[in-house]
Amino acid sequence: MNVQNKKASRVRRHTRIRKRIRGVAERPRVSVFKSKNHIYAQVIDDDRGVTIASASTVDPEIRGAGLKNTGNREAAKKVGMLLGKRALEKGVRKAVFDRGGFVYHGRIQDLADSAREAGLDF
Predict the structure, then answer these.
(1) Which stretches in the chain have pLDDT values below 50?
(2) CB-based contact 46:25 (threshold 8 Å)
(3) Rounded distance between C-alpha atoms, residue 63 and residue 37, angstroms
(4) 102 and 108 in contact (C-beta within 8 Å)?
């Protein structure tokens, strides 16, 4: 499977997921995107179209954490913990999880689990 087909398949899955998942003020959406080298996560209120909190492997807090590789499961765990901490600071306790069309496995699962450990409920 070439890269264009793989990306198109992920976008189709994400579109299907987004038909059912919507973040509101009471339960914003935790959106995840991963690339080969990085992982990004946001807490989004879709009603207002506002990003409440975000974290990624390009954040200075994670870059300075001494990670050798930002595209692995260890980095995803750190992003999840940071996202959970930032969301709690903004008063977000409950959320819905949007895996972005990616399989709930590996880095995506580790990010979600560590965000739950930090206090997010989804």
Answers:
(1) none
(2) no
(3) 13
(4) yes
With 0.90 as the threshold, say if the pTM is over it: yes
Separation between Cα atoms, residue 44 and residue 25, nearest integer Å: 9
**Nearest to 31, CA basis, from 79, 63, 85:** 79
* One-character DSSP codes across 2-49: -HHHHHHHHHHHHHHHHHH----SSS-EEEEEE-SS-EEEEEEETTTT
- In the chain, domain spans: 3-118
Closest CA to 64 of 80, 53, 75: 75
- Alpha-carbon gap, residue 24 to 14, rounded angstroms: 18
Q: What is the CATH number of domain 3-118?
A: 3.30.420.100
Task: Pull the structure tokens for residue 30.
Answer: 């935790």
CA torsion 27-28-30-31 (nearest 10°) is 140
CA-based radius of gyration for the chain: 14
> Phi and psi at residue 75, in whole multiples of 5°?
-65, -40
Quote the pLDDT of residue 1.
65
Count of other CB atoms within 10 angstroms of residue 67: 14
Q: Look up residue 71 and give its two tokens.
A: 């595209």
